[in-house]
Design brief:
This protein has about 260 residues and is of the alpha/beta class. The protein folds into two domains: about 130 residues, Response regulator (Rossmann fold, 3-Layer(aba) Sandwich), CATH 3.40.50; about 90 residues, OB fold (Dihydrolipoamide Acetyltransferase, E2P) (Beta Barrel), CATH 2.40.50.1020. Helices cover about 35% and strands about 30% of the residues. The chain has eight helices and 15 strands. The strands form four sheets. Strands 2-1-3-4-5 form a five-stranded parallel beta sheet, with helices on both faces. Strands 10-9-8-12-11 form a five-stranded antiparallel beta sheet. It starts with 5 loop residues before the first strand and ends with a helix.
Length: about 260
């Protein structure tokens, strides 16, 4: 691998960040950029088509983040993660000997990462094991596919929400939001996708337009026409609708 071109796929939702990464890779040499992708679904297609040696992978992307993408790939290429502020991930990467770049990264730091990747690719079994350990460390207790963190936009920045910070998920004018105790953040998932990906031990679909975090359930109250309202434990005592068909199993789960 030391004498061969390193085939790199750049995955980042910001076009300017992709352009900068491509320019730096070109300046370093010894690299063939086989494509770019701005989202996890697009990246899957590019990986299948180009079979890169390395993903230069942004963590925070709308919808599925970099971790979700990596979990869905088999086999997995080597990965250098890119992050602007995700310090929990930095600790995880350090613990699992997987490299990362903090934005904005310098060309010299990128060169170090590429050399590390070349060494790792000489031992593919060890690399695969480290990636598996990394994913286990950043998806604590959730197992493959369980959504433990969501990436949302806050103005021009991106913010990572832990799933357990979310009181409930709802839909408004066909847009899905995650409601915390202090704000609502729009997410690039449908409620059906969230229902499949969230931890079922914690989250429950209580209405066609609502998924509740039952860790924050305070009371289940009857409403009208056989419907119910689930009161949450936030300071505002938020109430969310519960459909008739979902009320009985919810009452059983809550011990009512």
């Amino acid at each position: 691998m030391s004498d061969a071109l390193l085939r790199v796929l750049i995955v980042d939702d910001e076009p300017l960040a992709r352009a900068r990464a491509r320019r730096l890779l070109g300046e370093l040499g010894g690299v063939a950029v086989v494509g770019e992708a701005g989202s996890a679904p697009e990246a899957r297609e590019r990986v299948a088509a180009s079979r890169p040696d390395l993903l230069l992978l942004d963590i925070q992307m709308p919808g599925e983040d970099g971790f979700a993408l990596l979990e869905s790939l088999a086999p997995r290429p080597a990965v250098v993660f890119v992050t602007a502020f995700d310090h929990y991930a930095v600790r995880a990467f350090e613990a699992n000997a997987t490299d990362y770049l903090l934005k904005p990264f310098r060309r010299e730091r990128l060169a170090e990462s590429l050399e590390r990747v070349r060494r790792e690719l000489a031992h593919p079994e060890a690399l695969s094991q480290r990636l598996a350990e990394l994913l286990a460390s950043v998806r604590p207790g959730g197992g493959p596919g369980v959504l433990e963190r969501l990436t949302v936009r806050l103005g021009t920045r991106q913010l990572i929400l832990k799933a357990d910070e979310v009181l409930w998920f709802g839909a408004e004018d066909k847009l899905v939001f995650a409601a915390t105790a202090s704000a609502r953040h729009y997410v690039n998932f449908t409620l059906d996708q969230l229902e499949r990906r969230l931890d079922p031990r914690r989250f429950a679909r209580v209405h066609r337009g609502a998924i509740a975090n039952l860790d924050h359930a305070a009371a289940l109250r009857p409403a009208f026409a056989g419907t119910w309202r689930l009161q949450l434990d936030d300071p505002a005592r938020t109430e969310i609708p519960v459909s008739r068909k979902r009320a009985r199993p919810l009452r059983e789960r809550l011990g009512n």
